[in-house]
Amino acid sequence: MSNTLADRISALDWGALHQMLDDQGFASLPVLLSGEECREIIATYEEIERFRSTIQMARYRFGIGEYKYYQTPLPALIQQLRSGLYPELAIGANRWLEKIGRAPLYPASLPEFLEQCHREGQSRPTPLILKYEAGGYNCLHQDLYGEIFFPFQVVIVLTQSGLDYTGGEFLLVEQRPRAQSRGYSISLEQGAALIFPTHDRPVQGSRGYYKATLRHGVSTILSGTRYSLGIIFHDAT
Q1: Does residue 31 come out as left (phi exceeding 0), alpha (psi in the -120 to 50 range) or beta?
Q2: CATH assignment, 5-232
Q3: Cα torsion at 67, 72, 78, 81 (round to 10°)?
Q4: Contact 215, 200 (CB under 8 A)
Q5: Model pTM?
Q6: What percent of the chain has pLDDT over 90?
Q7: Please, what is the Cα angle at 198 between 125 and 236, to 5 degrees?
Q8: Residue 65 and residue 44: Cα distance in Å, rounded?
Q9: Where do the DSSP E strands lie in the chain?
Q10: 218 contacts 131 by C-beta, under 8 angstroms
Q11: What is the pLDDT of residues 106-140, one digit of tens each?
């Protein structure tokens, strides 16, 4: 990968990605980070000063594993991902609001959106790195953290399935009103990303659009070690 991360994000087929988000609620991106860049992010895991908080998942019955929230300033690659992905996702987020009859809420740039979060007392950064060993997993959940939340988030797997670990598929479960849940099991190669809803998405029904609620998690790691990066765009209380 000789081009910059900003170039890679700009070169994505955003028209097709927006269509996938509208049609199925999530969209897989091609590899955004090289193996070297993935290893660079993994290396931050042991740099204590990088993080504001460490969560042992079993303590809170979230699953089995560990994750750490970065503190500001974010590592350069993570800041580039967060700032670079936001503008197109804000377009999609506002389009989703229009589908359910609401006015656009999300400004064009990440700093403008974070200023909204900060005015509401949400000032703690939320990008995080997650580590699972064999037997680890993540229960189905949502990452909200306050009254203001961005409707999309992004996960990037930093290790290679089948080489560094087995199992550990990304799970996405959608609940539609008066219907049983639908689940997706998604495998991502090293450096590839998935855009998915933070809370809900609009779905076309016979009487217009309605909201379907989504939760996400990670299936059990069968062997090895799995690292992933979570890009959450709103800050936390």
Answers
A1: beta
A2: 2.60.120.620
A3: 120
A4: no
A5: 0.96
A6: 97
A7: 25
A8: 17
A9: 27-29, 51-56, 63-64, 66-70, 128-133, 137-141, 152-157, 165-167, 170-175, 182-186, 193-197, 200-205, 208-218, 221-232
A10: no
A11: 999 999 999 999 999 999 999 999 999 999 999 99
Q: Is the peptide bond before 73 cis (omega within 30 degrees of 0)?
A: yes
Residue count of the chain, please give it.
237
Distance CA(149)–CA(139), nearest Å, equals 20
2, pLDDT greater than 90: no
| The two structure tokens encoding residue 77 | 């690659």
* Buried-state track 21-56, b at ≥16 Cβ within 10 A, e below 16: bbeebbbbbebbbeeebbeebbebbeeeebbeeeee
Q: Which of 237, 234, 26 is nearest to 115 (CA)?
A: 234
152, 96 Cβ separation under 8 angstroms: no
Q: In this structure, what token pair is assigned to residue 98?
A: 């229009």
Q: From CA 70, how far away is CA 223, in angstroms rounded? A: 26
Average pLDDT on 56-69 reads 97
